Amino acid sequence: MRSSASSGSKPLRALARAGRNLGQFWRRFSRNKLATASLAVVLVFASVAALADAFFDYGFVTSNQLDNAFLKPLESGTVYEGEAELEHRYLLGADNYGRDILGRIVHGARVSMVIGFVTVAMALVSGGALGALAGYKGKAFDTIIMRATDILLSIPTILLSIAIVAALGNSFFNLLIAISASMVPGYIRIVRASIITVKDQEFVEAARCIGASDSRIVFKHILVNIASPLIVQSTLNVGSSILWASSLSFLGLGILPPKPEWGNMLSEAREFIQYAPHTLFAPGLAIVVTVLAYNLIGDGLRDALDPKLKR
Amino acid sequence: MSDPVPGGGPLLEVRDLKKYFDVPKGRLHAVDGLSFSIDAGKTLGMVGESGCGKSTTGRVLLRLHEPSSGSVRFDGVEVTGLPPDRLKELRSRMQMIFQDPYASINPRHTVATIIGEPLRIFRKVKGGAEHEAKVRELMETVGLAGRLYDAYPHELDGGRRQRIGIARALALEPRFIVCDEPVSSLDVSIQAQILNLLQDLQERFGLTYLFITHDLSVVKHISDDIAVMYLGQLIEKAPTRELFRKPLHPYTQALLSAIPVPKAGARKKRIILRSEISSPIDPKPGCRFAPRCEFARPECLESDPPLAEAAPGHFVACRRAADFE
Amino acid sequence: MAAILDIRDLVVHYSSDRETVRAVNGLSLSLERGKVLGLVGETGAGKTTTALSVLDMVQEPQGKIVSGTILFEGRDIRALRPEEMREVRGKEIAMIFQDPMTALNPLITVGEQIAETVRRHEGLPREDSERRAGEMLELVGIPASRSRDYPHQFSGGMKQRVVIAIALACNPKLLLADEPTTALDVTIQAQVLEMMSELIKKFGTSVVMITHDLGIVAENCDHVATMYAGEVVEYGTVDQVFGDPRHPYTIGLFGSLPNLDEESDRLTPIPGLMPDPTDLPAGCFFSPRCPRATERCQAERPSDSEEGGHRVKCHLFGGGKEEGR
User: Fold this and answer.
1) CATH 3.40.50.300: does it fit domain B10-93+174-324?
2) Cβ contacts of residue B208 below 8 Å, gap of 6+?
3) B242 touches chain C (CB under 8 A)
4) Can you give the pLDDT at residue B7?
5) Hey, where are the domains in chain B?
6) Under an 8 A CB cutoff, do A4 and B147 touch?
7) What is the average pLDDT score of chain C?
8) What is the ipTM of this complex?
9) Which of B59, B118, B147 faces A210 most closely, judged by CB atoms?
10) Is B282 an interface residue toward C (CB < 8 Å)?
């Protein structure tokens, strides 16, 4: 028997209900050990990124300390900050300019997180709106939006990103646009397909029957029913967006040194792969772990959110 | 054309209603020249087999589909061509109960949200307390326990879900409800509960029903009059008792004889129709039942038979009906 | 006469890591050779699970036959090796599923689907099997020339005919028909049932007909078993059960049905809902809904009492004969 009491104030009950749902969701999600571990990894990365300045001074990780170039992990070196001379222990070693690799990875994490979430949010909103328009309104909207999507999809994504950055100029904001543009067609397709499946169901007809407006139907009835695939897709996309940003930076199109970013760290370290492999290893591992974690979380969410798999 | 329903005071009057869909193979005549009326407080049962256009008819009446042509007058107001703001107002007085209690309520909303939604859209009540009181009252009206207020549909069985759908339809205090196969997907014992509920509600609120179903025993139980549809057309309409006593159209006769009777040794003589329903896409002129009819004559294929009054209140669209008397 | 199928104390559970669904709870049934047994009950009564158990097709690993014996022609089905069981399935015991739309492979012609079954079980060469497929189609009322057509070219009723042709192609001794006509319109249902009963008679097939429609049972079956919560609560000939229903659940089912012959204003539904199969009540499973339940009913599971082959699982008919009537 359910425990939903008929007493108690309304917000309290709503809270209890939300808690019950969240609890159910968490029980299903936490059954997947890999996804739970990945969530922990992502949370650690996110808090480190948020507190990056508390760990390492931004000026420090971007200034050259040429004396300390290619220090091995755990080695120490003298660092000059203005007039001061400090002894610093390089936990992950130093790169070709003697900058602390760990510090650059921590600050790079912040850049990656921002890129990952902002690009996905941009793509979700724009792609979602276009997909909803195409799916719900149909006819001319559908034709125009979907043909445009096809055209967008027929251009290799790398070329598209390069073209956008080249046309708009190399800035952080334009990088965000370039990355999210590559994800927009995916969202258009998901949202359109889900809306087409959902909109012909009887409960949408029932909503029209009680006088609900189009916007009410889309937001209150359809979106809640397609939220799960969107959440899953977005989680996966955060991972690929981070990877994509790193790729563009690696090619010299994204974040340029001395700003720390995992992709450009790899790019710089590439030349010294034989002489100082540790400079390559650390940012590479950071990318792999982050992207893998987002993918595993995405898989876990898919299982936990799918009511058909409910046991 | 003769007037299908004499007498005064129909709540709903339908004249020559048509709904065509353009499909790749041609034009699908889902509803093809339907005329009928329902008096206030009565139930018209609409029967027919899948693809006969009965569900489309219900949806066209509520303008969930736009009619291709024809007229629908509800309470003296022409429904077709009504602008959106007036249509919204109309929907508070005409409601629908859907066939599938699983598909017709939003799985992500709670019972209270579903039942309360029409109240929100029409701002029928003020304040949260009043809203909750009204929703609880509706739940009680349809026999849903108050503890289900915050429950989700997937926690409930089909019968309770159908009660939610009924409560939602009642929320705006409509005068007319289209019941589209409301009990077809329910088990018999639950079906009986819902049928009784619908009858009680009709009595209590003076509701008028259009009861669409393929189940003749259900329609007999609940209807005052019955309209039989075949391929988008009304082929027979009569008071319930009259129709069951003396069906005139050969299709109605076959339909009635096909119902299995749950009695030992009750097996009756059955009219087995040949072949199956023909296509509603670009139908040929003439009686649409003729290809399956054992009484068909060449003249049946020439033009559509008109709906004529064979006995007081008993209308039939068959050129040979007089021969069966 | 020897029974072709004899099920004793069958118990089937479906378990997940959190709960156990007790689908079938000590079911006993037998079917005489050449007879038709109607298995009636509502959704969740365990009808389909029973049929799947006979074919040893209960979905592993969630589903499991916990105990009981199933004798088919005296052989214990549960003791057969998988390859022996494959031989029995389709050749000696065939099953017809409810939904003809999904029972056929959309990419293979209907003729080939019939021929394939024949080849596999009887090892006939291709030409003979194709000829047999044509014959089977003719038998179920489809011209043999259509054997090269694909399922989508057939209507629902025609598809179900094809399904029946496949099931009967190897002349099985036992046919399990699971709601074979539920998805069809009444006039088509009448055609299909007529055709089926002719073929059954012709081949002398023994049939278990699963249905929720008491009318179909009355007209097509020799014996009836009413199922409730995984048990047979009443068993007898059609005359016995329909003429003199004894178990309160069977009586309730009849009360729930709208009657075609009599005028009645209200139905008398069974109150309440089917019990949750993960949490069955103590004592008689029907006691929470039973208008005549006593304390004993809530505490003690009733056993069968028999009178002239009419078996009832109810305390009212326990010790003294007729005590509860």
Assistant:
1) yes
2) B11, B12, B38, B39, B40, B41, B42, B43, B175, B176, B177
3) no
4) 42
5) 10-93+174-324, 108-169
6) yes
7) 88
8) 0.83
9) B118
10) no
